[in-house]
Structure formats: structure tokens, C-alpha cells
Amino acid sequence: MHRRDFLKYTAVLGAASALPLWSRSALAAPRPALPIPPLLEPDARSHIALLISQGQSQFVGKTATTWGYNGSLLGPALKLTQGKPVSVTIRNQLPDESTVHWHGLEVPGSVDGGPQGVIAAGGSRSVTFTPQQRAATCWFHPHQHGKTGHQVAMGLAGLVLIEDNELRRLRLPQQWGIDDVPVVIQDKRFTADGAIDYQLDVMTAAVGWFGDTLLTNGTVNPQHAPPRGWLRLRLLNGCNARSLKISTSDNRPLYVIASDGGLLAEPVKLTELPMLMGERFEVLVETRDGTPFDIVTLPVSQMGMTLPPFDAPLPLLHIQPLRVQASGTLPESLADMPALPSLEGLNQRTLQLSMDPMLDMMGMQALEQRYGKQALAGIGHHGMAHGGMHHGGMEHGGHGFDFHNANRINGKAFDMANPAFNVPKGQYERWVISGEGDMMLHPFHIHGTQFRILSENGKPPAAHRAGWKDTVWVANARSEVLVRFDHAAAASEAYMAHCHLLEHEDTGMMLGFTVA
């Protein structure tokens, strides 16, 4: 897929460079061009075909086995329209079973693609749904229980773009791959021979699987040459466990126009944009001055994520504006954001996130032994603070310790056969997600809804996080969200609520719930 798209994209730029207004110097840079995933729209029968398969991809000069949708790595961007039904047929040519979860889509549990929606190796599945939600940038990825982290690490992820009339009325940049650009950000780790080096062990069950190589659309530090004016970036943090802090190398502002579930009421001007795993934000960046710059990620304070090269600003994407002028604009207002309904008398649920103390201790110990104190991100840790923790940890239950069920919600690891509760369809509820007593970062994701954040880690949500969201930030504090589910989910196809640090999800920090 990458080679074909690379050739197609460079051919477009090559033809355009014949125009006197275009800058040819941008094309002479040594960086690879940013690969642009193809837009895949439903055919005349409202059908989309997806093939999950294994292939080969080049990373840092070596060839690795990777997995992808309709290609060897990542996948296309599916373009859907509000109110129009679509059927998707998924064929699985992998050696493993998988699922396809529609992350951020408000669809019934029967087609949501959680861990019950298994597609056997060599098998297929067809789902039909009608997106009724607002225009948004969502995504799709595996949700195979116990193996989600591995399958995403191998390359399985793709975007879903939903359009509606409200979006079409705005003069936002909308030339796909030119001034409307997808930016899928992931980190990876490789073995000496270039293979993707994924492990689910005590350390990664505690802090998550993280890499030392940053990829943008599957490529290390690519470049993009947009026209001058406004550039729209559809950002996805597709990392397993790494939070990001997006900025620009010359401190030019980012104007956030949309979050997980769609447009904000008005643009929010930032110079730094934190992004949790699984989150999407759409930002506009002005390129009118023609000056080249980098989109970068700044260091974050998260255990395991402070090691080089992430201990300094790290470039994601080089922007080299061309001389031709862009046509998109930055509107002053974007979309109507309904006022929050009354919170009086709403049913409230509390979800307490926790990690088994043995996993906590052993995971931190393994992290420090493997990478040194720098990996603890200066946070310190209640387990590590006590003397003697370096001795006997592995002997004390290490070999028989079941880390696969050591992350929990309300004291229980995930049980696919027993949904935790039922939510009445179409009724608002107030959910309190608590990470109190746990120093870990938990980006908490709820299937089947786009919610509003009432408070995040005990504070009002930031302006760019006050719109429609499907992931909330929980870190040693309580966050509250206002949820409503407009589709049904039976026990056999329950919705999930879970930490989107994928190794936490895979080792138990997830529950199922029904809607009726």
C-alpha cells in the first residue's frame, strides 16, 4: 500500500511542480513523503470490503512482517456519511483470529466489534450500520481480548471519517492528502533484525508496551508539502501506551477545531496539545508565511515514556509549504454545542480502576532494572520508595503470578461472560471513573457513545476537551462524564468500558455492560 500511495502522491506533486507557482525545493529534501492512506467510500451498493492480511514493511532500513487492512500496514480511511447505511465485509487472512472495533462510532453492540465479535483466522464477518452522529474523525482497530496490544503493534489501525451537512457548510481545508491530512502517530520497538519486538510481560502489563522509534503514517519523520494558507491535520494517537504532547518547532499555534466526537463550538488556540492513547483531534495550522517547520511531540511525564529520544522534542512531520495558495479557512464558529442537561437526579456509577499490588511492585522493579531510574519519569513510586523492594520480588510469586488478570475495575478483572451492569437506553447517566491511589495514566474509553466531560482529574475540562469525547483522562484522581447510549447492546454483544492503555485493557482493566 505504501509504495503505491507514495508513487501516486509523488506523481501528483511532480506534475504540480511544473507550474511556476510551485516550489520545487520541497521535493528535493531527503525525507520520505508522508504516506497518505487512500479514501475508501462505499460503492454503489453501499458496501466496503476490508481484508486483514500480513505483509512486509520497511522501517529504519530493515524489513519487518506487519499486518494491515487492504495493505501491508495500517489501513485506508473510510469515508461515511451521516444518515447513509453502509455494510462492511471483513475477511481475515491472518494466522490469528481478530475483531474490528469501530472506535468512536455510535453503533449497536451487535456491530461494535468488541472482543465478542471474533473473526476466525481465514473467516469473515459482515456488519451493517447507519452512522447518525455528528461529523467526526474516528478510527477502527482490533479488539481481540488479550491480544489487542499485539495486533495494533503489528500495524492494524485505520481512520473513519464521518461527514454531515454542518461540516460541509464550513470552508475548512478539505483536499484529502493535500491540505486535509491524516496524521497517525505510533511508536514501535524493533529487534536487531528489524522485526516488531512486542512482549506482554510483567513490565508491559504495568506500564504498557512502548517503543524507541516514532512513526507517522508508518514512516519515520516524513515530510509534507501543502499549499500556503491553512493546513488541517487529523491527529490520532495510535500508540499502545504512550501519551503525546503535540506542538510545532517554531511555536506557531495549533487551532483545535474538533475532538474525538466532532467539531467544537469554536476553534481553541493552543501551543501544546496533550493527546492520550486513542484520542483524535483536528487542528488547523497556518502556513501562509511559507516557512518550513516541524510538527513535534514534547516530553511527557509518564512512566517508561521519558527515555531517549523522547526526552527532548521529537519531530513527527516536516512541513514544507509550497508557493500555491490554499483555499480553506479557519471559521470563527464551528458547530452548535448543546448545553449540558440538568444533572439532578441522574443515576451515578463509580468505576474504580486499580492494579494488583504485586504487579505494581514487580512492574516498576522490572522497568527500573531494565532502563534505570530515568524511566520512572521523576514521579517516584510508592512501591519503589520502600527499601528492600529489589530483593525477592520475582521469587515471591513471580513465576506463578497471573498478570493477565492483575488490572481491574471495581476489584474485578474483565469477564466476557458476565456484563457488569445494564444502562437504560436513551437515558443520561453520570459516570465517575476513579484512578485514586494509582499513579498510572489511564485514558478511559467507553464504547457506543460520545460523552461530555464534567470534570477531569478533579478539574473542569479544558476548552478543547469540553466537546464530544469518547476518551477521558484519569490519573490518580476522579473524572466524571455524562453518558447516554442510543443503541442496544445485549449480553452476547456487550459494550466495553476500559483503559485504552492497551496492555492494561489486555490484562483485565475492562468491563462489559448492556444497554436495553
Automatic annotation (TrEMBL):
Q: Which UniProt keywords apply?
A: Metal-binding, Oxidoreductase, Signal
Tell me which EC number(s) this protein carries.
1.16.3.4
| CDD domains xref list | CuRO_1_CueO_FtsP, CuRO_2_CueO_FtsP, CuRO_3_CueO_FtsP
Q: Which residues form the signal peptide?
A: 1-28
Query: Which residue numbers delimit the Plastocyanin-like domain?
Result: 53-165, 404-515
Which one Pfam family would you cite for this protein?
A: TAT_signal
Superkingdom field: Bacteria
Catalysis performed (reactions):
4 Cu(+) + O2 + 4 H(+) = 4 Cu(2+) + 2 H2O
Among the GO molecular function terms of this UniProt record, one is: copper ion binding
Q: Which NCBIfam families does the annotation name?
A: PRK10965.1, TAT_signal_seq
Q: How does it assemble?
A: Monomer.
* Protein name per UniProt: Multicopper oxidase CueO
